[in-house]
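Lab channel / #folding
Pinned by the channel admin:
"Please post every new chain as: sequence first, then the structure tokens as a reply. Keep commentary short and put observations after the output so the thread stays searchable."

First post following the new format, from NK:
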Amino acid sequence: MNARANFTRMQDSTQQDWQLIGGEFREFSKGLPDRVIKHLQILDGDYGGFPIDRYTHSLQTATRALRDGKDEEYVVCALLHDIGDTLGSFNHPDIAAAILKPFVADENLWMVQNHGIFQGYYFFDHIGLNKNMRDQFAGHPFFERTAEFCELYDNPAFDAKAETLPMSEFEPMVRRVLSRPRNTIYKAAMSE
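Reply from TO:
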């Protein structure tokens, strides 16, 4: 990936420049799963006061979803739901949702985007917040899905003795899900 366009302002770019950039982008995008996995692994050893580190929590959440028969996309969402903890300390669900948005269905995206508020049902009262904050979404088509995600997979995934599959179990799933963008403004350009 060494070829470069020659413009100094985008408005001066040419179709030839964008063919070159597109070729570079296609190669670069193939490495997205590796970059996402590597970033998730930054959570290894990051306890933040929790009983287990955030990486183990992520693996355990995905393990629970997988063992419960959830589909591959859902399991990848479970795995990556807290990937934003390092960069979005005050809005980690937004970071995870931004990464997943091009690749997942609306119901899974909404679940990841809002899991922080729904997870609050289990602890917000301990930090002076309204544990029922999630009720603002009552009646939303994905309310129950998100409540279930937190109840069955996210909430109980802090157990050092619980089954926790290794990343190698999830890596092929991450590669498949992150190789099929379906919600991107660049979709039409990608099919050329």
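NK: The first helix runs from residue 15 to 29.
TO: also worth noting, The chain has a mean pLDDT of 95.
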